[in-house]
């Protein structure tokens, strides 16, 4: 039997997602003021962004960004390993390390990349088991899978479930 046309398959899957109310909607943010967002004419507190403290709207932060862009241009031009590790990055890493009382610090371009790096460093394919809450962010789950270790998940906020998964792991894992 012939496979359905790609457009038909996509249309069918979309219809199913709509029926299940599993369609993501991109909300248009009109204005921002710190952690508050205007969406559809209503002001809401945004708990879903990475700007938890509203720093992206702080005058001092915006002014520093404008100064840096005027001085250094917009963008690093490459990854840190190629030719994108600049004096400003080095200075920030050093200042963060000093502030926290550590010999060094390492900046990452996103939380996803940070999660990948940490789990690659801590977990191995051999015997490691990583136990995570079922509702952890996808970047944590992806990082664990890419590390190659065994991933065990427990129901959201279920401490006993987490303990069962840990106790069920092989000795030394």
TrEMBL record:
<feature type="domain" description="Aminotransferase class I/classII large">
    <location>
        <begin position="45"/>
        <end position="172"/>
    </location>
</feature>
<dbReference type="GO" id="GO:0030170">
    <property type="term" value="F:pyridoxal phosphate binding"/>
</dbReference>
<dbReference type="InterPro" id="IPR004839">
    <property type="entry name" value="Aminotransferase_I/II_large"/>
</dbReference>
<keyword id="KW-0032">Aminotransferase</keyword>
<dbReference type="InterPro" id="IPR050087">
    <property type="entry name" value="AON_synthase_class-II"/>
</dbReference>
<dbReference type="GO" id="GO:0008710">
    <property type="term" value="F:8-amino-7-oxononanoate synthase activity"/>
</dbReference>
<keyword id="KW-0808">Transferase</keyword>
<protein>
    <submittedName>
        <fullName>Aminotransferase class I/II-fold pyridoxal phosphate-dependent enzyme</fullName>
    </submittedName>
</protein>
<keyword id="KW-0663">Pyridoxal phosphate</keyword>
<dbReference type="Pfam" id="PF00155">
    <property type="entry name" value="Aminotran_1_2"/>
</dbReference>
<dbReference type="InterPro" id="IPR015424">
    <property type="entry name" value="PyrdxlP-dep_Trfase"/>
</dbReference>
<dbReference type="GO" id="GO:0009102">
    <property type="term" value="P:biotin biosynthetic process"/>
</dbReference>
<dbReference type="InterPro" id="IPR015422">
    <property type="entry name" value="PyrdxlP-dep_Trfase_small"/>
</dbReference>
<dbReference type="InterPro" id="IPR015421">
    <property type="entry name" value="PyrdxlP-dep_Trfase_major"/>
</dbReference>
<dbReference type="GO" id="GO:0008483">
    <property type="term" value="F:transaminase activity"/>
</dbReference>
């Amino acid at each position: 039997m012939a496979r359905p046309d790609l457009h038909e398959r996509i249309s069918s899957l979309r219809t199913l997602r709509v029926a299940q109310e599993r369609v993501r909607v991109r909300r248009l943010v009109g204005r921002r003021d710190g952690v508050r967002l205007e969406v559809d004419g209503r002001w809401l507190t945004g708990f879903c962004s990475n700007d938890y403290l509203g720093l992206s709207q702080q005058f001092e932060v915006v002014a520093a960004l404008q100064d840096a862009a005027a001085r250094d241009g917009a963008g690093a031009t490459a990854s840190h390993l190629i030719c994108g590790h600049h004096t400003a990055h080095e200075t920030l890493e050093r200042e963060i390390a000093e502030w926290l009382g550590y010999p060094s610090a390492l900046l990452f371009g996103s939380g996803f990349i940070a999660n990948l790096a940490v789990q690659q460093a801590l977990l191995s394919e051999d015997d490691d088991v990583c136990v995570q809450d079922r509702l952890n962010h996808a970047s944590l789950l992806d990082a664990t899978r890419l590390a190659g270790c065994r991933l065990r998940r427990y129901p959201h906020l279920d401490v006993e479930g987490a303990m069962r998964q840990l106790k069920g792991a092989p000795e030394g894992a």
